[in-house]
Amino acid sequence: MKELPTDEVRAGLEILRKMGVMEIVFSGGNPLLREDIGEIIDYASRYFVTTVYDNGSQAVKRIEALRNVDFVAISLDTLDERKYDYLKGIDGAWKSAIDAVETLHSQGITVGVSPTISQLNMYEIPQFTEHFCDRGIPVLYCLYQHDSFEQPMFQIGEKDAELEISDKEAFAKMCDALIEKKNRLHGILITKKMLNALKLLTLKGERVWKCKALQSFFMIDPLGNVAGCHLQNPVATIYDLPTLWNSSRFERLRKTYRECDKCSYMCYMFYSIHADVQGNIEIVRDQWKNAKKILAK
Predict the structure, then answer these.
(1) In the Cβ-directed half-sphere of 92, how many Cα atoms lie within 13 Å?
(2) What residues contact residue 228 under an 8 Å CB cut-off, 6+ apart?
(3) What percent of the chain has pLDDT over 90?
(4) Which residues pair with 143 in a beta bridge?
(5) What is the pLDDT of residues 203-245, one digit of tens each?
(6) Quick one: pLDDT band at residue 275, thresholds 50, 70, 90?
(7) Do residues 135 and 178 touch, judged by C-beta distance below 8 A?
């Protein structure tokens, strides 16, 4: 796929800075495959809280580019090497991910692991969490999802009955275990409010949040197209964003998105549940010890 050249990415980041955007998350695909990613990350980290996702295949090669980011999230779902290689369909995937975590951590880079919770690994998530938190490595969670309809921006996940969470009671117990561990462990990067919302959604199908797409978060693809999330059609380019942000058209789109119940992607949940001032206060209260630890670095 053709992507925006470096100078246009920088121009786009400057637009976001002037709009008051505070956080940038580089994910993919794998953003570290770009030859110019070091220059892009260096520019972004001057003005935004910057997170970079990697599957463990590129982080060590790009370690110099990652020194100034606020957080590097390495995808890792299990402590079981054979299970992880099976999940990814790549021999050596687990070792690459573990090596990336250990190398970045030893270099003083704030790195964490990002497990995707599924039926295959949810029983071990509490132990997985203890393992890394005890080593000073934060855990940032995702939830297995697949896009069940044709999506206009890009595809995330494929339907897999083996991964679909079927033991709902066990999932709820896992959430309770993480809530308990948050009282004594540093580095569990999910709020109690999020965990309780996930429990209610799983057990009763109730959503306690309204989606805040195109309000507290939005997506930008490699061509500079902007959408509320990856499930929605692009509605602008990054260059149009300042003019359209407060328009009646965008207000109508936000109203439509607030009624959407098509997904439970945890990143979208987080920025929706904690979208307002009260939500930000809750994050500070919930994650204060983690924030102090990260900022101290």
Answers:
(1) 2
(2) 211, 213, 214, 218, 219, 235, 253, 254, 257
(3) 83
(4) 117
(5) 999 999 999 999 999 999 999 999 999 989 999 999 999 999 9
(6) confident
(7) no
Query: What is the rounded CA–CA span in Å between residue 65 and residue 45?
Result: 10
Can you tell me the distance from the alpha carbon of 209 to that of 267, in angstroms, rounded to the nearest whole number? 13
d(C-alpha 73, C-alpha 101), whole Å = 9
pLDDT of residue 289: 54
pLDDT at position 11 is: 97
Quote the CA–CA distance of 265 and 127 in Å, as a whole number: 23
| CA distance linking residue 170 with residue 176, whole number of Å | 10
**Can you tell me which residue has the tokens 């010890």?**
289
Q: Helix, strand, coil proportions of the chain in percent (round to 5)?
A: 45, 10, 40
Assign 286 to helix, strand or coil. helix
Classify the C-alpha dihedral 74-210-146-3 as positive or negative.
negative
* Omega prior to 108 cis, within 30 of 0: no
Task: Encode pLDDT of 110-159 as tens digits.
Answer: 999 999 999 999 999 999 999 999 999 999 999 998 776 666 676 676 78
The candidate with the shortest Cα–Cα distance to 232, out of 151, 156, 149, 158, is 151
Distance (Å, rounded) from C-alpha 260 to C-alpha 87?
30
Q: Identify the DSSP state of 153.
A: S
C-beta atoms surrounding 160 within 10 Å: 13
User: At which residue do the structure tokens 């690459």 appear?
Assistant: 96
In this structure, are residues 253 and 262 in contact, taking their beta carbons and an 8 Å threshold? no
